[in-house]
Known about the structure:
2 copies of one chain form a homodimer.
Chain A: H1 7-10, H2 16-24, E1 30-31, H3 44-57, H4 59-63, H5 72-86, E2 93-98, H6 102-112, E3 118-123, H7 127-134, E4 139-146, E5 149-150, H8 152-161, E6 165-170, H9 184-197, E7 200-204, E8 229-234, E9 246-251, H10 252-266, H11 271-283, H12 286-312, E10 317-318, E11 326-330, H13 337-346, E12 349-350, E13 352-353, E14 367-371, H14 377-395
Parallel strand pairs in A: 1-12, 3-4, 3-6, 6-7, 7-8
Antiparallel strand pairs in A: 2-9, 4-5, 8-9, 10-11, 11-14, 13-14
Helix pairs in contact in A: 3-11, 5-11, 6-7, 6-10, 8-9, 12-14
Amino acid sequence: xxxxxxxxxKSLKPSAIxxxxxxxxxxxxxxxxxxxPAPEAFPAADIARLxxxxxxxxxxxxxxxxxxxxxxxxxxxxxxxxxxxxxxxRDFDNILxxxxxxxxxxxxxxxxxxxxxxxxxxxxSFIGSLNAFRSYGLRLRGVEMEADGMDMESLEQALRExxxxxxxxxxxxxxxxxxxxxxxxxRRRLYELAKRYGVLILEDNPYGDTRFAxxxxxxxxxxxxxxxxxxxxxxxxxxxxxxxVGYAIAPGEVFSKLVVCKQVVDVHTNIWAQIIAHxxxxxxxxxxxxxxxxxxxxxxxxxxxxxxxxxxxPWVSYQPIEGGLFLWCRLPGGVDMQAFCKExxxxxxxxxxxxxxxxxEGQPCQCFRINYSTPTDAQIQQGMEILGGxxxxxxxx
Amino acid sequence: xxxxxxxxxKSLKPSAIxxxxxxxxxxxxxxxxxxxPAPEAFPAADIARLxxxxxxxxxxxxxxxxxxxxxxxxxxxxxxxxxxxxxxxRDFDNILxxxxxxxxxxxxxxxxxxxxxxxxxxxxSFIGSLNAFRSYGLRLRGVEMEADGMDMESLEQALRExxxxxxxxxxxxxxxxxxxxxxxxxRRRLYELAKRYGVLILEDNPYGDTRFAxxxxxxxxxxxxxxxxxxxxxxxxxxxxxxxVGYAIAPGEVFSKLVVCKQVVDVHTNIWAQIIAHxxxxxxxxxxxxxxxxxxxxxxxxxxxxxxxxxxxPWVSYQPIEGGLFLWCRLPGGVDMQAFCKExxxxxxxxxxxxxxxxxEGQPCQCFRINYSTPTDAQIQQGMEILGGxxxxxxxx
Lengths: 397, 397
């Protein structure tokens, strides 16, 4: 049988990260390539206890069909929590519980864009989202990242030039892969530009609650007086990713379309996971849990950065991070980044070549991404020594 | 803000069933409109025990990110089980675990069809699947249902006429909503026609294991020598729908595209649910559980059909069922079906107007759908009395 596939998926490739992840999940590899939260950060004992209690007292609630919008108590609690803690969500907004945050990107692309429409993205950006957009045949236009977020001149130019731009995709906090946090000034400017050009914003915030240094900045959604922002939250980095629970806070009209499209994908999100998320937020010390994890991530990130400085400096540069799971590392000009990452894998250290995150993977790129939350401290130590050796060999040539 | 939505979703309406379900989940309504499996059929105690054991011994496995294809032990076990029990799956096939079965329909439409392509469907058919196809801007062509499945003459005519037909969608066992099971002869004919016209088959089999009378017929997929059939299975009717676990067994090339597209929707299916499904199948008496549920469904279905005969006969006709969750009930000509269903809701009995399942909801329809697995026996008794009263009033006029 000769299979003919839809145009939209013909050119779609498996995510380079997940392919590398599969390869390097073999024992013996140091998994700097992963994006897993640290397992010691999971509230496993609380989840076990809540789950046992749920199955003892209300098993049918955890097993029967539920409604597409999501588990009502979780929706209500999250709505109040996000309003109080982050000033996110107004009367015109509504909340949808999704099967992980990536579903928000996929559904937003599906409801807002016709094939050939444009999404304006930070360049580089998270490949899972980029591929979600690509899977609807959308064109991606990249706006270069600076140390404080997107280059606003380029963004405005893109908005001026692109008549079919439908939304701007941003990860304002500890962006994946660059680790960059957008300044307050740029958040305001982003919102103004979106308003002026009548283009929506998709704000993806999986890492906001991992901040271990510095001060929180207001979400772009907190500025949203006009119903321009779809906000995407996730429990993957603050509770457990295997549960696959995320959410969208979106203007009512957009919300309604997201619901209809979610209905035909998976009817609703696993209800056990939704109930556990709700009970964990309301019956356990949720803010204390976040705080504890921030301390853990801070220690681990600082440990990694110290080893980076010791073994890879002065050849490899990076912007120090205050949260998130990733370091974006730049090799000196003249070094072949792809060859470097390949040789690192030969030495059993897996990183992600930076080009995987570009709008156009064929463009030159001197960067690679390091994740510090998956490997153990011993692996980080060993991995940095190996990378350091490789860097010295490569750069001292 | 004036929102502009994608063409594909502009005309997409929320599923009539789920809207009715929302309305009638208020206490006091008799929920013949639902599609929930009977809660007493859930293996709640086993799931509670397996879940507690899992969180005690391997909590991280149940909480960390996993791979898109699905939990490897579940994939391996299901592959062997489906091969042995149903002769489903060959060397060229591969298995993908999905977040419920509807995801298989949504992904299959996404990977196989461009906008404007055609899906040939049984008419009437399951609205969740129809809306999944509609959500990609696909045209649906209905083939009328007979007592032993699709009208094969009309199917061939459709295949002859429609150059952009991409696949044929069928629920061969206890079809939703008609309850019809396709004869073996028609299964063979369907396969031959698909082969001759080079069109794939999407075989959706959520109800096969609910058979409480008669003999199992071979799956269409068991005839698949040529890689023409995407088979879709589900745990929703045989374990618990709130877990949202389904699967596709598809030819390798199609499987690969399904994986890439699933990756951008939800990365992977809730891993706790996948592990529990695997352990329930392998550590508990799975076939004994199916058998027990078949007895339960048989009793409940026969009870419902007896009451139908007593209270709604001779005015309302239906084809007796041997499995599945639904009865397809036909009102006499001249009776306004929509008005009938509306008045039933006024009397606190919710059914689903049959037109919801048509390719073209505007076509005339004399049928409505009854679900017998959600209401209690007392509700069935009371509901049939109320419907009976309404039928007598309406038909004796």
